Amino acid sequence: MALFKKKQNNSSKKRFTLFDDNVPFQVTEAYKTLRTNIVMALATQRSKVFAVSSANAGEGKSTTAANLAIVFSQAGKKVLLIDADMRKPVQHRAFKFKNDKGLSTLLGGIDSFKQVLKSKTANLDIITSGPIPPNPSEMLASENMKILLDELVKYYDYVIIDTPPINVVTDTLTLSPHIGGIAMVTRSGVATYDEVSRAATSLEFANGKLLGVIVTAITEDTATYKRGYYKKYYRRDYAYRASSYDPAVSHASSDD
User: Fold this and answer.
1) Considering its fold, how many domains does the chain have in total?
2) Containing structural domain, residue 43
3) Other beta carbons less than 10 A from residue 26's beta carbon
4) Radius of gyration in angstroms for the set of CA atoms belonging to the chain, rounded to a whole number
5) CATH code of the domain covering residue 125
6) Cα–Cα distance, 71 to 169 (Å, whole number)
7) Can you tell me whether residue 174 is helix, strand or coil?
């Protein structure tokens, strides 16, 4: 059996980041507000490593993780973004890097940390997923991954991990006991209450901490409805709202 599966073209969709030209002001401000709230949520945690996930696929978690890494680095923090979605990775496309080596080859002992590390700016480093392995869950649950996270906190102010959807595979849950928390992304008009609730319950059973919920692609027309919709379950947690940079979204709200 081959160690790595043949890489598939999972999506041709362009990934927008805050490095792109003509990013709407309100989108940038929404991510800055989100950054502040996450810093506050992590203030009581020993680890400054956190994951960005979602209940289901297609809700904007990877775009959110990328833009959070950017705004954290723009605040003068040394940041590492890890693409740990070794099933459908996208960060290499978002930042225009090759993906011939990365997290999978690092954890597999094929490449060294120095060989897989990519620098985007002075404050932002990135580890792409690498070739798709046959055992992503086992890799993320491995002792090598735990050792890696323990070492990274010595050199970075924040480590942001893009992880697969919680309701689809167990990858994110295997990491949850070893990080400061998970910010869960849900797309307005896509995820249902039951789906988000199921993901939060799974996280709780895995001894993970839910930092809050990020609702993407929200507009002024849906803001009031969605605020009440999610408040029912997340009244004890931070509620985050930021828009993924999506031309289909006419307006983004940055209110807490």
Assistant:
1) 1
2) 27-241
3) 13
4) 17
5) 3.40.50.300
6) 28
7) helix
CB 60 within 8 A of CB 244: yes
Distance set, CA 118 to CA 36, 97, 164 (Å): 26, 8, 21
Q: Is pTM beyond 0.85 here? A: no
- Whole-angstrom distance, CA of residue 245 vs CA of residue 232: 27
3-class SS of residue 123: coil
Residue 89: enclosing H or E segment and its boundaries? none
Tens of pLDDT, residue by residue over 32-82, are 999 999 999 999 888 999 999 999 999 999 999 999 999 999 999 999 999
CA quadruple 193, 196, 199, 205: dihedral sign: negative
**Identity of the amino acid at 252:** A
Residue-wise pLDDT tens digits, 115-174: 999 999 999 999 999 999 999 999 999 999 999 999 999 999 999 999 999 999 999 999
Is 214 among the domain residues? Answer: yes
Residue 202 is assigned to a structural domain of this protein: yes
Cβ–Cβ < 8 Å for 83, 103: yes
Are the C-beta atoms of 57 and 165 separated by less than 8 Å?
A: yes
